[in-house]
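Ticket #4471: complex job returned nothing on first submit. Input attached below:
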Amino acid sequence: MDNHSHTASEITVHHAPSEGTGRIWKTTIILSVLTLIELGLGFLMYFTDLPNWVDLFLKGVIVILTMAKAYYIVSIFMHLGDEIRNMIMTIVMPLLLFVWFIAAFLWDGGSYRTMRNRYDKHYEQTTLDREMKAADTATHPLH
Amino acid sequence: MAQTAVVQGKQWWGGGRSPFNVEYGKLMMWYFLMSDAFTFGAFLISYGTIRFSQNYWPDPNVVFNAFPGAGHANLPLAFVSLMTFILIISSVTMVLAVHAGHHGDKKGVVKWMAWTIVGGFAFLSCQAWEWTHMITAEHAVLANGSLDVVGQTVRVNPWGADVHGPIIAQALQNTSHEGLVKLAHIEHGDQSFAQLGAMTDTQLRGMIDLNKLHVREMGPVAFGGFFYGITGFHGFHVFSGVVINIIMLVMAQRDVFEKRGHYLMIEKAGLYWHFVDLVWVFVFLCFYLV
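Support reply: We reran it on our side without changes. The output follows.
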């Protein structure tokens, strides 16, 4: 084995290791900035009384920023972006199940809530926020 | 790289070499992490299902607003931000250790692994503080017409809707001696439970200032189970990651990888450690931010 490549024997195509640590520090800064923006939005929601749809929108933005952080961690820190495309696909494609997983189970939770409120009026009266009491919970599943 | 693959196309899947050009152990670490992602995903999604099924859910900014040494100051998001940055920084030191390994730089590997382990212990200490703070906290709650004092455990949740008005004074009259002792202890922490326990109910009621007392209803019970279950499972991953990193540090220090000719074990440990950081990003999102 080539002692200078610092890789294992079954590796056929050797990559020269990256020289500098510039990419690592750049990613660190990106991750920190994204986290700070998330915190900023969190504080914005906490300290101001925004309409419900604005809160929901900001939460959506935070989810997207989190996905971006996940991308940078996996792609740069875990070096998945440097692997062969087919190998990346064997990791990423199964993870697409999460799209169904999240949608189906959150929908299920929301549906249970709506039905329970519809058929168990005592439960609805004792647990629902006063300002939301009049509204149909089916139109406000996210809260 | 693609060119080489075309030239050797016939033999790629014939055995004896890695079609993905990845060391076997590293590939299997990736597949393990993928399965672990589904485990964590299932936990977090079931938390989401229960949360969506409830009419009321505690506001994380109210639940997580304490900071060590800051007393009762209201500091939402502050401590968990510190924990998040500790994990990000320890991820950076880990990737620097992997980078040093690529260059066969033993001194660099040892140095950055040591810092990663420090980061891991720092995170675990923070989590230990947070759990202790939440379990031992004293929160006044209104339950079944009388007052009680509880912490955040897997059995009870003190973060229900705020309670105001004469109902509190009424509930105080129905509160048992034990409940009154615990209530008095919130405002008179300098006195021991034994001292307070020796007083009469009337004395205790006189000590409790209802205007200062913040009373809530009981919140959703499921909150505690999900919070301690998921952050505990993550903390267990951090702990095992620290153990793995310590083993890697010792092996690097004793020239095991130097003799082997490569530092691929550091890469595999690094994958696990970054995964722990990745999971925290989502725990941070689901429990503390939204």
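Strands of chain B lie at 139-143, 146-150, 215-217. Closing as resolved unless it happens again.
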